[in-house]
Q: What sequence folds into this?
């Protein structure tokens, strides 16, 4: 009886151990099955295109021809006939000085010229009769020429004691008021020539300015018009750097779109497209992993249908794509969705 009990106990122990091993083996098998589960991914085509890295800059809108108008001579301002923001026509009288002193100077110069003319005529007659010497005749001639020049100067100053518009445009700024005493050349008004259009002036670094040329296109955005994009063209490129900023000034010619109004001083964000292009591969930005500066990686599919990690060289970011200039030779597709969760050699499952 005792031996029979020992036999039953031994049998139970063996059965328990077998059951434990079976359960443990089943769990390990299930774990291995989960580890080998394929990662769901989506694919995207690699586009081979000829494009150039856009150049981004910030500039200030202004008229192509904006000028500061002033009097040639000093004096007291008599009146200013225009206000800021006012449109003006070509040849319109904008401002004048008080002319009492200037008219007196013209009158004085006219009298001196008349007298010099009479003196010359008298000496010329005497010289013809051999009464006056050659030296006296030459001195009278010189005096006449000097008086003539003085009269021309006085008349010229009188002419520029008034300011007229050089072309149709708009008054941007009024610097002084009537009855103020100003010196020669002091700005009185600032105006924009309406016939010359609008430009955005932006400063570019030397590495960027050498990549653009006259006629290259650009897109402009203004905070005042967040829903508008304006087409522009490179119209001028400075040949020397600004001593203040070290940048090269570039002018982008632009015109307002329908329903928009331009004002001098508006800030523009520019994206210039250089005409010099290079061959690159475009891939969606989400396919790029482990990016560090100009280096990064993408995943493609190996012949065994597993994830294959490929190192690439990133030239620049273009819209929502990465422009790759090396590393994707012979590769037509890359993994997009799911790329961030992959390791090299992982099993994958392509989903639509």
A:
């Amino acid at each position: 009886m005792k031996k029979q009990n020992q036999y039953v106990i031994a049998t139970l122990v063996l059965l328990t151990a077998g059951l434990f091993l079976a359960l443990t083996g089943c769990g390990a098998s299930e774990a291995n099955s989960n580890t080998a589960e394929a990662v769901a991914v989506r694919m995207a085509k690699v586009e081979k295109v000829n494009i150039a890295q856009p150049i981004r800059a910030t500039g200030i809108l202004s008229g192509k021809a904006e000028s500061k108008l002033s009097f040639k001579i000093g004096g007291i301002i008599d009146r200013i006939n225009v206000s800021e923001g006012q449109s003006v026509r070509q040849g319109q009288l904008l401002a004048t000085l008080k002319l009492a002193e200037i008219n007196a100077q013209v009158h004085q110069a006219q009298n001196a010229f008349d007298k010099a003319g009479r003196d010359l005529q008298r000496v010329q007659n005497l010289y013809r009769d051999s009464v006056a010497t050659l030296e006296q005749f030459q001195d009278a001639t010189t005096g006449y020429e000097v008086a003539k020049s003085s009269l021309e100067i006085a008349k010229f100053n009188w002419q520029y004691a008034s300011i007229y518009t050089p072309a149709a445009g708009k008054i941007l700024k009024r610097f002084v008021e009537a009855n103020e005493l100003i010196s020669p050349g002091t700005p009185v008004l600032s105006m924009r020539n309406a016939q010359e259009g609008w430009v955005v002036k932006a400063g570019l670094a030397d590495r960027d300015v050498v990549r653009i040329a006259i006629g290259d296109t650009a897109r402009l955005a203004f905070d005042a018009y967040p829903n508008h994009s304006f087409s522009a063209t490179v119209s001028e490129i400075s040949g020397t750097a600004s001593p203040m900023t070290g940048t090269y000034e570039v002018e982008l010619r632009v015109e307002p779109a329908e329903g928009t109004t331009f004002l001098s001083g508006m800030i523009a964000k520019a994206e210039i497209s250089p005409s010099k292009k290079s061959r690159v591969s475009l891939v969606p930005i989400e396919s790029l992993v482990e990016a560090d500066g100009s280096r990064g990686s993408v995943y493609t599919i190996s012949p065994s249908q597993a994830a294959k990690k490929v190192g690439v060289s990133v030239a620049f970011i273009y819209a929502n794509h990465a422009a790759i200039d090396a590393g994707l030779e012979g590769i037509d597709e890359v993994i997009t969705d799911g790329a961030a969760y992959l390791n090299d050699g992982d099993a994958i499952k392509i989903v639509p």
In short: DSSP finds four helices and 24 strands in the chain. Helices lie at 2-35, 100-128, 134-159, 206-209. Residues 1-35 have pLDDT under 50 and may be disordered. The first helix runs from residue 2 to 35.
